[in-house]
């Protein structure tokens, strides 16, 4: 099993940002709003001090988050053909992952994974079961700063043809013992090992953190 330990500075920055976001959402005192805004700046300064990101861009990203701070949701489709798993090569880092992405507001998770698989690989799928729900610690880039949960669906191919999408540059199937370099913030060996375990035992319950 792969264990992911967040750096202490990122844990602090996340918590301070979330406290500030909640405070700005619910405070009706201008004095308190000023203090929570300052907390948001502190969180941005922590990120700046440990990355190459400018404070103002980090702060603006933080301030775009509204309402009570909760984890984001990432969905991934585990698509199997001939005992091999579908992976797509990401434009962003040129590494490979199960197709998927951030869940959209108003769309149910199973529909979301169907759309993501179609957009990124050209294949039509039907979700059959959830193999795992994970605490997805996503690294240090602006879009991956926020705490996220990852849901992996085991999917059946029902149509379509393999082709890259707007965010992918290649599509292929790989044996579980012949994996390419993985985009580990999106898909790691723990996720894939759990998919393989479900293929061997379909009654296996979903893994979760």
What would your notes on this structure say?
It is a single chain. This protein is α+β, with helices and mostly antiparallel strands and 209 residues long. The chain is elongated. α1 (8-26) runs antiparallel to α2 (30-50) and α2 (30-50) packs across α3 (55-63). The longest helix is centred in the first third of the chain and has 21 residues, at 30-50. Strands 1, 2, 3, 4, 5, 6, 7 and 8 form an eight-stranded mixed sheet that branches. It has helices spanning 8-26, 30-50, 55-63, 109-121, 189-200; strands spanning 72-81, 84-90, 96-97, 100-102, 123-136, 148-160, 168-174, 207-208. It has two domains: 8-63; 72-208, Nucleoside Triphosphate Pyrophosphohydrolase. The relative contact order is 0.17. It starts with 7 loop residues before the first helix and ends with a strand. The chain is built from five helices and eight strands, in the order αααββββαβββαβ.
